[in-house]
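Fold it.
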Amino acid sequence: MSVRTSRTRPITVAATVVVAALSLAACNDNGDIGDIATSTGPSLRATAPASPAAPTSVGAAGKTPAAVPKTPAPMTSAPAAPSAPAAPTTCQAANTKTVAAPLNRPVNHLLLTVTNTGPGTCYLHGYPAVRFGEDQSVPPVIAESKPQAVVTLKPGESGYASVDLSSTDGTNGSNGRTATSLVVYFRGPSGSGSVGAGAHPSLPEKGVYVDDSLKVTYWQQSLDDATSW
């Protein structure tokens, strides 16, 4: 009995070894060791790394910010067409301001200053037709004071004339009186008659003394020319 048992075990072990060897050989013939590895553990094959996802811009709270709306370009209006300049006209009370002021030199003289307050150029034609108080006539002009050209006033510019109120020595004049009001009339291009209403510049409160030697200069472009007579 003992002898049989000892002989049977080696034969069984040997058979087991042969079976195992045959199984290993069969695996090697297929050449796929990786399939075996996957059945018992992680794959031995190298895998390509996945492409990184494109970064996503997020806001401060981790949310994707909404698209910022584009600001529309401001609408601009077309520039207004420049207005045509006002046509030149005759200086008169409606488009000028007249000031009367006594002069210290020459004595017994009154200076008339006419300033263009209109939108365009105006012309001072001839000489002023002045009337003091209730006088029924206008004084004559000093012929030698006539300028070479018509006085031209752009907006804001001034023209001048002086009025010789009375004789210097008080003997050559007659019918002396004190005038407290004055009206200045403007002549047209023809030199005769007047244009528009008269201007009413103020006189000193005590008035001015005039006599029959009263006379005026032509309108002048400069103050010096007006006060040189």
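The radius of gyration is 60 Å.
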